Amino acid sequence: MLTQVEITHTVNASRELVFKVFSESEHLKNWWGPKGWRFTVSHSDFRPGGRFHYSQKPADGDVMWVKFVYHEIIVPEKIVYTSYFSDKDGNIVRAPFNENWPLETLNTLTFKEDGGKTTITAIVAPGASATENERKTFEESQDMVHEGFSVTFNQLEDYLSNGLK
């Protein structure tokens, strides 16, 4: 059984709106990723088999590139994608923070609405090709994964409450 991290967060917005800000790059660039990092979209093709390629850069560090490949999209209920660290051309590379991080992670996002509020559930797991060492590194990094998504979801909440840009 593969190790996985599950994160849930509820925002005060309709499921359709929340799904929209997850699926459109003009919205994602305003809230996705670490707080205070510059986010640049290189390519966005939101469909099964499509990819999303972006860079993110902290004020005091190097650019990191990330690529998503979408597998399943059920509007407005679910997004399944594989995430990879990459170079600027989209070639898969090792994570800049840990050479034993899995080359790919499988991410499943679900969106459920109740009373005008939407609960987002993110499940993140090492990809099927992960080695035992990569799985162990992922397992040891669960707090980091949880914290990263929590910060990102808080930024989403701020973005939704401050009006879409």
Automatic annotation (TrEMBL):
<dbReference type="InterPro" id="IPR013538">
    <property type="entry name" value="ASHA1/2-like_C"/>
</dbReference>
<comment type="similarity">
    <text>Belongs to the AHA1 family.</text>
</comment>
<protein>
    <recommendedName>
        <fullName>Activator of Hsp90 ATPase homologue 1/2-like C-terminal domain-containing protein</fullName>
    </recommendedName>
</protein>
<feature type="domain" description="Activator of Hsp90 ATPase homologue 1/2-like C-terminal">
    <location>
        <begin position="12"/>
        <end position="160"/>
    </location>
</feature>
<dbReference type="Pfam" id="PF08327">
    <property type="entry name" value="AHSA1"/>
</dbReference>
<dbReference type="InterPro" id="IPR023393">
    <property type="entry name" value="START-like_dom_sf"/>
</dbReference>
